[in-house]
Design a protein that fits this description.
401 residues, 17 strands, Peptidase_S11_C_sf, protease, six-stranded antiparallel β-sheet, Peptidoglycan synthesis regulatory factor (PBP3), Domain 2, alpha+beta, five-stranded antiparallel β-sheet, Beta-lactamase, 27% strand
């Protein structure tokens, strides 16, 4: 798409339309998505699980749901949020994969699934993360939480704050690993939201998609890791994310699979057995791949356009997406019915990074069905008189060539 030249004070609603196969995107509620949910409710899936959700990862569109907002104990599916906060800490430079994590007495005392850390034992964050992602190590989860936040309690507070930011309305965490405790709950829909955010860190599947690995390879006590999610070995395209089981929660799983660029998230909670859980997750994902197709058009932070800013400290402002912008269509649906419009507001310096400067609107047969914000990609101050003078001279020189 190209911008009309001379953008400045006069443009308030610049439109740039391109025919695209767009049905919904970035999880924005729309009439089309409501209809999608109504159709999904008629699908007979997840018969034995207490609750379930099937979601398109690129757009956040719910393709199927059953008791999606019911508050339930998640067991070790809790670690979806734990892993998200760890990856965000790596991403912002707070910690490195090579950093060594020391095991406290509290961390070593964790029961349930574990990698049998000893008090005072050290492992790299990379090794600890493997222990969390593959073996669901409760001890490793606490050790890393204490390292990042000073205490498990502080880390739990971070988990709840992040959940609220993601729009999780039926979630309350009380620990980092999902061991049974009062008032520790979430919902299938909230788990899907957390999982979608986690998958924005593409490196996570390098851990969750591995079937087996080792810890302490060079020591006298090597530890064999086998992924608790057996579907990564047996289901085509499966590469994550996290299983869970306690007597109270029963069998839970947040799973993701990708085929031909189409990634989906399936969550099942409260299944009676592991085979039933795996079968119902597989059936949900089969349904998605059989009936839909998806394409990612823009990743979070990707530049959509460059806009000229009169009297700005920089001449052009990158306009970026804040979330994944993708295409979701039912198979057999015509592409030509959909088109995209980029609408830009009047923008003058100074501008703050992250400031909303426009939106992407999706239309079907000229009817608006979805909308998402576009934001400024950097801070732009007012240009000095000297800067404006240099630009004028450069413009004259360029015109004379």
């Amino acid at each position: 798409m190209s911008l009309t030249r001379g953008l400045g004070r006069r443009w308030t609603a610049l439109l740039c339309a391109t025919a695209l196969m767009f049905a919904s995107f970035t999880g924005v509620a729309s009439a089309a998505e409501t209809k999608q949910k109504q159709q999904a409710a008629q699908v007979n899936l997840a018969k034995q699980s207490t609750s379930a959700v099937l979601m398109d990862q690129a757009t956040g569109t719910v393709l199927f749901e059953k008791n999606a907002h019911q508050k339930l104990p998640p067991a070790s599916v809790t670690k979806v949020m734990t892993m998200l906060l760890i990856l965000e800490a790596v991403g912002n430079g707070k910690v490195k994969w090579s950093d060594r994590i020391r095991t406290s007495e509290n961390a070593a005392s964790m029961g349930g699934s574990q990698i049998f850390l000893e008090v005072g034992e050290e492992m790299t964050l990379d090794e600890m993360f493997k222990g969390i992602a593959l073996a669901s190590g409760n001890d490793a989860a606490v050790a890393v939480a204490e390292h990042l936040a000073g205490s498990e309690e502080n880390f739990v507070q971070m988990m709840n704050e992040r959940a609220a930011q993601l729009g999780c309305k039926n979630t309350s965490f009380r620990n980092v690993n999902g061991l049974p405790v009062e008032n520790h709950f979430t919902s299938a829909h909230d788990v899907a939201l957390m999982s979608r955010e986690l998958l924005k860190h593409e490196e996570v599947t390098k851990y969750t998609g591995v079937y087996q690995d080792h810890l302490r390879k060079s020591s006298e006590k090597p530890f064999w890791l086998v992924n608790t999610n057996k579907l990564v070995r047996f289901y085509n395209g499966m590469d994550g994310l996290k299983t869970g089981y306690t007597a109270e929660a029963k069998y839970c799983l947040s799973a993701t699979a990708k085929r031909n660029g189409f990634r989906v998230i399936a969550v099942a909670m409260g299944a009676p057995t592991s085979p039933v859980r795996n079968a119902e997750i597989s059936q949900m994902i089969d349904y998605a791949f059989a009936n839909y197709k998806s394409e990612v058009l823009y990743k979070p932070g990707q530049v959509v356009q460059q806009v000229r800013i009169d009297k700005g400290g920089v001449p052009y402002l990158p306009i970026i997406t804040t979330d994944t912008v993708g295409v979701l269509m039912k198979k057999g649906e015509k592409q030509t019915a959909y088109r995209q419009e980029i609408r830009l507001n009047e923008v003058k310096a100074p501008i703050q990074k992250g400031q909303i400067v426009g939106s992407v609107v999706i239309k079907k047969d000229e009817q608006e069905i979805a909308k998402a914000d576009l934001v400024a990609g950097l801070d732009v101050g007012k240009a000095s008189m000297w800067t404006l003078f240099k630009r004028t001279v450069e413009s004259w020189l360029s015109f004379g060539r």
